[in-house]
């Protein structure tokens, strides 16, 4: 009996502390999910962005792998982030590179003959940045080296941990509910109605 009480106390504490640790991540996840569900002008990426066009000197070296070329071009252009795509077009004497981070994207076109890179930068507002965080996986790339930017690695890791935390909170919440005898009947109603609503919606979508 004493061990059961200790275990229940441990689960209760973990439930609280895990929830508090991941509070910020869950807040970002829920708010960004809400923005995806509503097309409001406040986070319309086409309207809420600032575009900057400029040029930079860039003589890309030959014989490098695409990712190395992309990083070199980005460094010379003074931009940083994840290298999402690199297109080497020797027949046009051109290199195209896309560099991305939440709230920002740079399209770089290098004229290899002139050694000039045309840089088009797009700066988004905070709401679009929030949406970008929701979908930041590092997998949207034509390169073999996915997640080639350290912050993307770290963010992806935290998203995996956040998912595990949600599963833990579900499991621990269910366990703690079972310990509250007085709330079992009301809890069963809430659980049953919630699952029934899910089934109805899934059935309606799949019809």
Automatic annotation (TrEMBL):
Recite the UniProt keywords alphabetically.
Membrane, Transmembrane, Transmembrane helix
Its signal peptide is none
Whether Membrane counts among this entry's keywords is: yes
> Has the keyword Heme been applied to this entry?
no
Its domain of life reads: Bacteria
Cited InterPro entries: PepSY_TM-like_2
State which residue ranges cross the membrane: 14-36, 154-176, 188-206
Annotated protein name in UniProt: Peptidase
